[in-house]
Give the backbone structure.
Amino acid sequence: MKKQNFPKRKKNTFKKKHCLLCAKGIYYVDYKNIELLKSYINFSGKIIPRRITGLCQKHQRIIANCIKRARIVALLPFIKKD
């Protein structure tokens, strides 16, 4: 009995995402900059994780802290209601 040859699968190769804030040269993020912070929150109000946004660890921590501060000051909602 002859062994069947199946086509080989390609391994999952993902492009590494580069930090947009490092590329733009943004080193300080203010919690009052709502337009920037809104781009890192999904439709239900949760903070988007680093593996999806492509931010570096330093900027992800800064963005998360700024979002939390903006929520406390009531610039951003904790949850979005439909």
